[in-house]
Amino acid sequence: MTSPLQPKLLPATPAAEDPPMMIADLLRSGVRMAGDNPIVYRDLSRHSYREFEKRVHRLAHLLTSQGVQAGDVVAVLDWDSHRYLECFFAIPMIGAVLHTVNVRLAPEQILYTMDHAEDVFVLTHEDFLPLLEPLAEKLPRVKGYLLCQESGQEASTSLPLVGEYEQLLAQQPDSYDFQTFDENAVATLFYTTGTTGNPKGVFFTHRQLVLHTLAEANIFQTPGFQLLDRSKVYMPITPMFHVHAWGVPYTATLMGATQVYPGRYEPEMLVKLLVTEKVDISHCVPTLLNMVVSADAITSGKVDLSGWHVLIGGSALPQGLARKAWDLGIDTRSAYGMSETCPLLTAAVLPEDIAEADFETQLPWRCKTGLPVPFVDIQVVDESGQPLPHDGESVGEVRVRAPWLTQAYYKEEERSEELWRDGWLHTGDVATLDERGFLQIRDRIKDVIKTGGEWISSLELENLISQHAEVAEVAVVGIANDQWGERPAALVVARDPSRPPETADLLEHLQVFVDQGRINKWALPEKLLLVEEIPKTSVGKLNKKVIRQELA
Ligand code: AMP
């Protein structure tokens, strides 16, 4: 950005150094803060931060000995593990780019992303060998595959393996001479899937990730949010391939918090780790928390999760879900961001006067989209790009600036310019800003239901329906209607499938909000369907594209 101002710039003395912001410093900080704190992987391994640092050094030796160089792109296909955490550091620290492959995409999309990213080396868990084998001949740039094996069985595969992770790691020296380099070097790259077209690559530099980590650390220690410090135990339940598990592994490392990696998400293992490792904080999408609070073992009180803090993002946190969690002693907060934004943009930090109040007073604040975190500039604008008043009512598109937003879609000029039109990153979300500066997402632009000239927020309707005691999960979409353009339709999963709520009952529940003036009568769904399951995306969000198709 150019500026007409000419502020004073003073020359540095020739001997002065201005060190670049490097991911390596996040790791050093954690080891200094809490060198003895453990990094845990399922019930399979446990070692200290000091050992974690050595393993990162060994991995750097391993990769460079296999010919990986600065500027190369290295793909990782693994479940959430201590290995993945080591890749978060070692790969960018040698100047290479970490490509976190979304293993839940369809094989042809995985192939597209690995080809488009120009991956030259692949680390893969043995579970993904059958997926990769048929793709390998279409990925001629890949020089070698490093296998992460846990089953103890000899791998029989057609892939050109260079060896097994642990075996090769054990043969490497403990200390690697990491160099510093330009902080604007790309550190990570991954793909986001939209409703149309091929997946889009977003990428983040060392400088961006360091700044994002510092801001996240700041907000995680702010009164009214307070989630993480080195005395806490952290376990992600957002895959590490999805926006670096929201950057929290970097933040937890900076602080020296104990980290627990659950591998493949299996309900029994997750619950076991939550209990035995006494996990303080996790983060996940609302659908996943919903699964946890609906599980028999939890509702029956056999497993006690009280004291667990869960940061919810990726979709709005419905008040009904936050209350159900609270009744089980689980504390929830929400935050907002997207793949393009590294991701953190806002966090639902409780205002000082609310932080001391009872739960019912706090509930709507916990579920708000949140306050912009430090360095994030957010505007809600009308169709001509004019900022709207902070009145909690004027609805417009959210556009943002921050020092950690992807500067383009990788090798996609047109879509990049569209994303960054008029110098702001356009989120595609519609929202309001209130007098206190809190953002409230109302919907994705494409999910807003337009009925007879009125706009209805599908999120608001989901929030209200979720407050019915018999509802476990709900999704609302617009369906075409000749007279009104669109009308709302809701898919509802019953809390107790043997005693599903009556449609009339649900409508009566919503009618109360109509009478209170919270929603207009057009918001009453035209269709209310009880279903066993709601379609989800590769990262566990409600898949509205598929829901609309199925309803049509
Ligand atoms: P993704 O890039 O897949 O992580 O999706 C980002 C999108 O998820 C955002 O643009 C929002 O539409 C939605 N999202 C993320 N966090 C929230 C939140 N706290 N409330 C409402 N929507 C959210």
Describe this structure in words.
Helix content is 31%, strand content 24%. The protein is α/β, with parallel strands linked by helices and 552 residues long. Bound molecules: adenosine monophosphate.
Topology:
Elements: H1 24-34, E1 38-41, E2 45-48, H2 49-65, E3 73-77, H3 82-93, E4 97-100, H4 107-117, E5 119-125, H5 129-132, E6 144-148, E7 161-164, H6 165-170, E8 186-192, E9 200-205, H7 206-220, E10 233-234, H8 243-246, H9 248-255, E11 258-261, H10 267-276, E12 281-284, H11 286-294, H12 296-299, E13 309-312, H13 319-327, E14 331-337, E15 344-347, H14 352-355, H15 359-366, E16 371-372, E17 377-381, E18 396-401, H16 413-419, E19 425-433, E20 439-444, E21 449-451, E22 454-456, H17 458-466, E23 471-481, E24 485-494, H18 503-515, E25 527-530, H19 544-551
Parallel strand pairs: 1-11, 3-4, 3-5, 4-8, 5-6, 6-7, 10-11, 12-13, 13-14, 24-25
Antiparallel strand pairs: 1-2, 8-9, 14-15, 15-16, 17-18, 18-19, 19-20, 21-22, 23-24
Helix pairs in contact: 1-9, 2-3, 7-9, 13-15
The chain binds adenosine monophosphate (AMP).
